[in-house]
Amino acid sequence: MSKFIPLSVPNLKGKELEYITKAVETEWVSTGGPFVNEFEEKTAAYTGAKGAVSCQNGTSGLHIALQLCGVTRGDEVVVPTLTFIAAVNPVKYIGAEPVFMDCDDSLTIDTEKMAAFFEHHCDVSNGKLMNRLTNRQIKAILPVHVFGNMADMESIMDLAAQYNLKVIEDATEALGTYYTAGKYKGMHAGTIGDIGVYSFNGNKIITTGGGGMIVSDNPEYLKRAKHLTTQAKSDELYFVHDEIGYNYRLTNLQAAMGLAQLEQLEQFIEVKKANYEYYKKAFEQISGLTLLGFKDNIRPNFWFYALYCGKEYAMNRDEIIQYLASKSVQSRPIWGLISEQKPYAGSEEYKIEKANDFLEHIVNIPCSSNLSKEDAAYVVDCLKTAEK
Ligand SMILES: *Cc1c(COP(=O)(O)O)cnc(C)c1O
Question: Which tens digits make up the pLDDT trace of 177-187?
Fold first, then answer.
């Protein structure tokens, strides 16, 4: 039996233990400690955002972001169907409704279809974009930077300006991804729209066990994000609360780990890039298998690798996953489409086509930042041996 190769696991070889020990020794373990502020400042500095507010996870960050953007009960938010469900559930938490869009060849939200939807199925009245079918106002677009690729932010920002919409970037998978050309050259995923959200879940590019970060250039948003994530206390001493808040702030223990992880982020991206390039070339030699690329005008963070398994290959998606499992290699299909999930059975979707094809053909293969060259070669060998 060969050694188990996991899909995506944490890499904790930096100063994690040192900083966490410091938090424990100083007995600052909860939300009040200095590492939390430092982690916020360093995340803002790294991404180029004006400010950052920590939160318990990416899901809670998106929950807050929607509220900051004024999305309320009965409003609608345009979301992709090809994503992890945590991108969409927060829309429902606040009683709003998602409208599902297809993806394009980059796996991110299809902006041409979105533009067609706005043009042919919505009306603008008093500066509000109204969905003709439901007569509800569309308030925001929530693109997801799938697997560390960049959604088409130029088109999304143009549509948002044209129709007076807010943009909340789900950058939970894309910390470190930025534009290298075009209108947003130098700008990071998460910092282009009104608000961006990162995640530090265990399988993300850096982890705090669980954790998240809200970033924005809008000081009002940042102030209110801090307020809402810390129980909406308007007077520290007398416990005066001016709205319903949440206990969403990151703890000092988590932030200690986050700081150590952030120090290593660029190294993680280097390893992920090298393994990506290795896989990409290797699969060019296997008919029917293609490692999907990232966009040309970005520096991706290479978080997750999506292997497209075509009809010419000896096995289909499920057979590949089972076969790899038998060889001690963990892999998985892409997420089930969110518009097909039970809680979203009644939600509107618009011309979903490509997402179905990707769902049927994509397998995610091992991509950890501590994946060795030998392990990557072993994965390739398994798939080579299985070739027709
Ligand atoms: C991980 C993830 C989230 C949620 O982040 P958590 O920190 O796990 O709550 C949201 N959206 C997408 C696309 C994700 O991959």
Answer: 999 999 999 99
Question: Domain extents for the chain?
Answer: 16-263, 265-387
- Pick the atom of ligand 1 nearest to 56's CA: 7
Q: What is the pLDDT of residues 250-307, one digit of tens each?
A: 999 999 999 999 999 999 999 999 999 999 999 999 999 999 999 999 999 999 999 9
147 alpha carbon – ligand 1 mean position (Å):
11
Distance from residue 88's CA to the centre of ligand 1 (Å) = 10
First and final C-alpha spacing in the chain: 24
What is the CA angle 43-213-95, rounded to 5? 155
Q: What is the DSSP letter of 268?
A: H
Q: In the prediction, which pLDDT does 74 show? A: 98
Topology (CATH) of 265-387? Aspartate Aminotransferase, domain 1 (3.90.1150)
The residue nearest atom 5 of ligand 1, judged by CA position, is: 58
- 16-263 classified as CATH 3.40.640.10: yes
How far, CA to CA in Å, does 384 sit from each of 104, 176, 371?
A: 29, 32, 19
CA of 66 to the centre of ligand 1 (A): 15
- Which atom of ligand 1 lies nearest, measured to the CA of 211? 7
Q: What is the mean pLDDT of residues 111-117?
A: 98
Q: Do the Cβ atoms of 139 and 95 come closer than 8 Å? A: no
CB contact at 8 A, 272 and 367: yes
Which secondary structure element, helix H or strand E, spans residue 178, and what is its range?
strand 178-179
- Whether the pTM exceeds 0.90: the reply is yes
Ligand 1 binding pocket includes 149 (Cβ within 6 Å):
no
Are 111 and 152 a contacting pair, CB within 8 Å?
A: yes
